[in-house]
Structures are given as structure tokens and as C-alpha cells.
Amino acid sequence: HWNARLPFAPNHVAAAFVVGIISYFWWRNTQGLRESSHDALRIIQITTAMVVILLVWSVATLLLRGGALPPPPTAEHLRFSDEALGWLKGTPLPTFTVIALLIGFGHSFLAMSGEESLAQVYREIEHPKVLNLRRTGLVIFLYSLIFTASVSFLAVAFIPDATRARFSDNLISGIAMHLVGPLWLRLFFQGFVVLVGFLILSGGVNTAIVGSNAVLNRVSEDGVLPEWFRHPHRRFGTSYRTLNVIVGLQLLTVDRKS
Length: 258
Fold this sequence. Notes:
258 residues; mainly alpha; 10 helices
């Protein structure tokens, strides 16, 4: 219950963090794809450690204290926002269980959103390319199936209905605070969850830089853009001019939003 505030506007603090992250990954990509990929791998490893701790701790909580099962997926138990219904808003179709399930499954496809990134980076994947693509797709599938689905079920199992809405934007933090164990340990794990979320969003910056760089280099190879963009870095041999353009546009976006 300690209330503390930074002596700066929240948007300015967030913008400062973003500028630092963009600058860091700009330098790592300027050094080479292997360097930036190494950072992305470290983020995945730390995330995996958090997932394993969460699942093991959750199983222990279920064994010691039990949990609630989610209600059956029937139409009377499914609630959709206006944005989720889209053009079906105001029609009787969502009242049918089959249609309501199709709406839910449609939104669940977002959990597989890592797959389209393979189309951006497949040219940079090392040999054997097809085997490594299959392995990457399997990792994305397992994360989506085990982690994403487990979080939804565990949130229902541990967080009371009356307070679950408070954690709708961050279910993992809510689960962390409703596990068995002393409060200080749960708070420490919640801080770890926040750190992992910070790293995942930071990795998204790197993914955007890598994907944009790959696309612009292909456009330059096709003659749409001048070869000037693909001029190699004197030391690292990377297309640093393209990277500079991408990162410059990112920084301008941060300046506008802050």
C-alpha cells in the first residue's frame, strides 16, 4: 500500500523508455541480425522461465486449495463487447451457441499472431530453412496452446468473479496475486511478470525493425528504391541506411504520441 509517483508526466516517462529501447535495438541490428536475434532469444528464455514458474505454482495451488471450473461455453454464459460483435451487433445471431462459439474462435486466432512474422524473416533463417521454420512454428503453436489457454483457465480458477474485471488487461498479474504462498513472494513474482511483459513488448520493437528492414531491402533489390539504401556499413556490412530510416520514423512516432 505504498503510494509513490515519479515527478514526471507518465507519457514522458514511457516515451523515454521507448526511445531507449528503439536506440538499443537500432544499434544491435546495425551490428547484425545475429546480435539482435541473440537478444530476442534471451527474451524468449526469460519468458519461458516465467511461464514454467507460473504453471508449476498454479498446479501446486490447485492441489492445495483447489479452483473453480469455467462455466460451459453456452450462449447464456458468453458476453461480447460491441467491438467483438462487429457487424453482428443488433442481430439475434450471437444468441445461438454455435454462432457465439464461432465469434470466440475467430478472436482466438489472434493468439497465433506470431505466425505472420515468419513471412518477414524467412529469408534470414539459417540452413536448414524448412526444418527451422517447422521448429519455429511448433514453438509458436505450443506457446499459444499451453500458455495463452492456461492463463484464461487459471484466471477463472483462482480469481474471484467479483474482482476478475480488475485484472482484465493483465490476467497473469491477477493470477500471481491469487496463488498460494506468502504475500511478499507473490509480489516478487508479480514484479517478475511485469518485467517479462516489458521485455516482450521490447522484443516487438526488434521484430518491427527486422521485418521492415527485410521488406525495404527486397524493394530496393527490385529497383523500386535506389541501391543507396542497401549500401553496407563500413564495419558491420549491414544495410544501416535502411535501418536509420526505419528507426527515425519510429522515433518520430514516439514524439507524436508523447
